[in-house]
Amino acid sequence: MMLLLAGCSDRPSPINPAAPVAEEQFKLILLSIGIMLIVCTVVFVLFFIVLVRFREKPGEVKIPKQVEGNHKLEITWTVIPILLLLILAVPTVALTFALDENHSDVEGTLNVQVVAHQFWWEFNYHDLGVYTAQELVVPENTRVQFTLDSADVIHSFWVPGIGGKMDTNPGITNHMYLDMPAVQPDPDKNIYVGKCAEYCGEGHALMDFKVKVVTQDEFNAWVDSMRQPVQVSEAAQRGEELFAANCISCHAINGEQPSPSGPNLKGYANRDLVGGFRPNETQWVKEWIRSPKDVKPGATMPAFNLSEEELDALVQYLFELR
Q1: How far, in Å, CA of 108 to CA of 133, rounded?
Q2: Which residues make beta-bridge pairs with 135?
């Protein structure tokens, strides 16, 4: 039943690849499954032949001919596994080394530093002077070179439908690249879910992020908007004051500088989720500010004891960060 249900989703995944790297990895999956099916088929055929042919029959005691030291058989069952391992190993090693190449200096490559935190993701476009969190925006048909770091414990960066995965280790920088797919007519199909694939603590299961694939023009417009200073209405000034008093020590709202310790909130109102987990709606934003650990177990953000009026003002300000 679980195997049948696993095939019911059309979401991009390792067995439903949406990008070149994932497609190459899927070919390796098919190759290994094919080899295993051949081996299993031979083993089970021989098993059932022996089971039927040499089964004990009533009133008959028949011991099959004992064969020892048959060089042909020994060579056969030694050479065939070696050949099968070579068929599997050669393309696997070749693709592993190919995917490990660093394309950071190649023209047309987009360089992004990924910093994993408990339990959120930071994305830094150093070449463009843009810093953001939780949502990775990339242009279509572009090679993205990732530099992977961790701010605390071991995490693992994985976008199942596009390719991956690679660990982010504290004190060790890893590198990987992914080729982004083309933009699809259906907007929902241009958003890919990324996950942490290494158990990293209480909030591991909820440590998701999104990859948004856009056209080159849309990406350029997004970069320009991230460089623009924050502007809010007069009605949101009270919330701006509260943010400066309570939040600015951890969260940057300028897309051209990294945050001190929490996610960069530039463009926060355009995000789909709060805490990378709940819908970005007034109710959940208030709950998140009041008690982050109740919304997302393991969250390191402290709780704030604000009045309902103060929460309304702060939420209004956050929803103007577009």
Answers
A1: 23
A2: 210
Give the separation between CA 129 and CA 228, rounded to whole angstroms: 12
Where b means 16+ CB within 10 Å and e means fewer, 245-278 reads: ebbeeebbbbbeebbeebbbbbbbeebebbbbbb
**Collapsing DSSP states into helix, strand and coil, what is residue 322?**
coil
One-letter amino acid identity for 291? S
pLDDT digits (tens, 9 = 90+) for 195-221: 999 999 999 999 999 999 999 999 999
List of residues 6+ apart from 149 with CB closer than 8 A: 113, 114, 115, 116, 168, 170, 173, 174
Q: What is the DSSP annotation of 173-190? A: -EEEEEE--PPPSSGGGG
Cβ neighbour number for residue 239 with a 10 Å cutoff? 21
Record the tokens describing residue 209, joined without a space.
Answer: 């992020």
CA distance 33 to 179: 25
Q: Which residue has the tokens 């996950």?
A: 195
Distance from chain centroid for Cα 111:
17
- In order, the DSSP letters of 20-59 are HHHHHHHHHHHHHHHHHHHHHHHHHHHHHHHHHHT--BTT
Q: How far apart are CA 285 and CA 272, in angstroms?
A: 12
The model carries a pTM of 0.85
Measured distance CA(212)–CA(139) in Å, rounded: 8
